[in-house]
# Entry
Amino acid sequence: MKILVTGGLGFIGSHTVVELQNKGFEVVIIDDCSNSNEDVLDGIERITGIRPLFVKLDLKERDKVEEFFKDYSDVEGVIHFAASKAVGESVEKPLLYYENNIGTLVYILKELSRKNNASFIFSSSCTVYGQADKMPITENAPVKEAESPYGNTKQMGEEIIRDTCKVTPNLNAIALRYFNPMGAHPSAEIGELPIGVPQNLVPFITQTGVGLREELSVFGDDYPTPDGTCIRDYIYVVDLAKAHVVALERLLEGKNKENYEVFNVGTGKGSSVLEVIKSFEKVSGKKLNYKIVGRRPGDITEAYADTTKANEVLGWKSQYSLDEAMKSAWVWEQKIRS
Ligand code: UD1
# Structure
């Protein structure tokens, strides 16, 4: 069965391609390589023994998207990762984000609407909850006004899919709301490759660990949490990748209750910034150079998932601990810098 993975050369996309191939799916990747590179195909091939099909294409080119779906009319499911994801940049360039993340989503949904039967998995984010009132966060928590155009593209993306599914019974979709993905494949053949200075905590830590960055700034220790630093739900990327496969199988096997469903994908456990640093120090045996600085604007105090729905309905549960995920991130970082 042929599955299209857009953004399949990216961090979460590439790990998902591996898990799909491990399950016997035939994968075709679309990627424009704007934030990734074709070497990732070699890593995937070394892990799975199979080189996925690859079409280099910018999804903003509507004609090319149409042509693709004509050429690959046997695609039965789409996992749609391709999107821009830098929060700060989205504030500077909102239209770029709406065009990249919303325009391309509309083109793909138009193509899928034409099919007799199509399954669609969307990369959403816990960012849609903003600072939720209650922890852990269930899928029923209200969606809060977005803090950035990036966050807004995730909220709007979900609404566009929901509205489309209402009038398109042949389209079945699931939005996965990721918490904080981290880590790398245990083989260290693929992993996270942030361009420039990492905005996210874990790559910043591992880059500091290898000496690429001088020190980590911890953004605030005066939050109302046990140690004063922010709490997040760090989910191992391989666990997250597997959640995509399970969600896709649910749709392909017609097990979904409604044709649009939403699931949180996290571990259910919150970790503070200082706990993440401790985890790094434990698995690497190194002291991390860090200092406490002021809060980062827009940061929320805490977010961790109630994963009951994913556990019970999808039958999916995260398997790896923070330390195991951190170890994989550290092995990967050392490998790419050696
Ligand atoms: C990230 C994304 C956000 C996404 C969310 C959930 C960014 C900038 N933000 O936010 O869009 O919706 O995950 O998927 O990509 N921290 C430091 N020092 C650093 C970097 C981070 O102390 O140098 C702290 C932050 O204050 C935060 C925690 O580490 O408390 C995690 O930060 P980050 O990795 O950026 O994730 P989120 O803020 O959760």
Q: What stands out?
A: The domain at 2-182+236-265 is CATH 3.40.50.720 (Rossmann fold).
